[in-house]
Amino acid sequence: MMRPNRPIYLDNHATTPVDPRVLAAMRPWWEENFANPHSVEHAMGREAEAAVEAARAEIAVLIGAEAREIVLTSGATESNNLAIKGAARFAAAQGSERRCIVTLATEHKCVLESVRDLAAEGFEPMVLPVRPDGLADMDALREAVDDRTLLVSVMAVNNEIGVVQDLAAIGALAKDAGAIFHTDAAQGCGRIPLDVEAIRADLLSISGHKIYGPKGIGALYVRRRPRVRLAPLFSGGGQERGFRSGTLPAPLIVGLGEAARIAAIEGLLDTGRIAGQRDRFLAALRAEVPEVRLNGDAERRVSGNLNLTFPGPVDAQAIMAAAPEVCVSTGSACSSAAVEPSYVLRALGIPEAEARATLRIGIGRFTSPADVDQAAAALAAGWRHASAGN
C-alpha cells in the first residue's frame, strides 16, 4: 500500500490506512450515485438509503447487535459524547435520582471530559485509578458502583497501552447495580471479539478510521431491550431514531460497513499475523536495546500494541527526530498538543522522566516483516543517538 521511499507507518492506533477494498466500495457513491439517502422519493435516493442500511447491518454483525440498534455518527468522539451526556441528561429529565457517573483515569480524553462536563449540570463524576498494569481495579469498581450510579463507562482497549479490559465482568457489575454500561470500543472493534450481549453493554462506540475505514464516520450501539434512552446532543431533522440529526454521508457509511464486514471475516487472521509482527519487532529491538520496558499487562493486550519505555535519560521526541523514517507516537493523537507526559502513563504510576522516554508502537494489517525489522533497527539507532546527546 505504501509508496516507495515513504516512512514506515507504525501508528495504527492513531489511525489505520483505508483498506483498498473499502475505498473501492465507497467510490461509486461519490461518482455514480451521489444522492442524499434521505431523498427516498426517487430511485437514486432509495438506492443510497439501501446502501446505508446494508452497511448498518454489517456494523451490527461485528458486535452482535441488531441493525436498528446502530446509530450512525461522525466518529467515536461524538458517539462517546452522545452516550454519556445523552444518557445522563435523559435520566435527569425523567427525574432519576441517580447522579453518579463512574469511569477510569485512563479513558480517552473525550470520555473524561464528557464526564467532567456533566459536573456543571449536577452530576457526580467518579474517576477511578487503575492498577499498575493498566487494568481496572475490580475491587475499587465494586465499591464505587452502587444504587446511586447512573452510568459506568470503561473502554474496551486502551488507546495508548493497548490493554484489554474485562468487559464482561464490568458489564455484570454495572447491571447488578442497575446502572447503564457504556464502552468506548474504538480501539477494540476489529481487534478483539466483541458481543454486546456477552458483555451486557447498553452503549458501545465505534470509529471507522480505527478499523481500516474512512475518517469522519462512526457509530453508537444503543440497546433496544431493555430500551436505553438518550437526549440528542443537537437539534435537526430527527434522523437516526431522533438521536442524531443530519444528512447521512452515504460513501463514508458504505466504507464503514465494508470495513466492518472485512473485520468480521478476517479479524482472527489479522490478530495472529499482527501478533507475530509485534513479537518480531520487540525481539529485534531488545537485541539492540535490552533494557526497553513494556508498559501495561503483557498478556491482556491487543496484538498490535507495544508501549515501550527506553532506558534513559532520554527523550522520546529526540528518538523520533533521530529516526524520521519511522512513524510512531508518544501517546494519543488527541493529546499530541500537550506538553506534559501521557496522563495514561502517569495513572500507571510511571515517573515523569520515564513517561517522556516512552513510545507507542502500533502494528497493523499492512505492516510487513521488512517494516518491523527496519523500524526496530532505526529506533535502536535513534535511541543511541538521542542518548549520546544527553
From TrEMBL:
Protein name stated in the entry: Cysteine desulfurase
Reactions catalysed, as given in the entry: (sulfur carrier)-H + L-cysteine = (sulfur carrier)-SH + L-alanine
Membership in a protein family: Belongs to the class-V pyridoxal-phosphate-dependent aminotransferase family. NifS/IscS subfamily.
An example Gene Ontology biological process: iron-sulfur cluster assembly
Keyword terms: 2Fe-2S, Aminotransferase, Iron, Iron-sulfur, Metal-binding, Pyridoxal phosphate, Transferase
EC number: 2.8.1.7
InterPro entries, A to Z: Aminotrans_V_dom (IPR000192), Cysteine_dSase (IPR016454), PyrdxlP-dep_Trfase (IPR015424), PyrdxlP-dep_Trfase_major (IPR015421), PyrdxlP-dep_Trfase_small (IPR015422)
Originating organism: Siccirubricoccus deserti
Enzyme class, UniProt record, top EC level: transferase
Organism ancestry: Bacteria, Pseudomonadati, Pseudomonadota, Alphaproteobacteria, Acetobacterales
Domain of life: Bacteria
Domain called Aminotransferase class V: residue spans: 8-374
GO molecular function: 2 iron, 2 sulfur cluster binding; cysteine desulfurase activity; metal ion binding; transaminase activity
Role according to the record: Catalyzes the removal of elemental sulfur atoms from cysteine to produce alanine. Seems to participate in the biosynthesis of the nitrogenase metalloclusters by providing the inorganic sulfur required for the Fe-S core formation.
One GO term describing the cellular component: cytosol
Presence of the UniProt keyword DNA-binding in the record: no
Cofactors that this protein relies on: pyridoxal 5'-phosphate
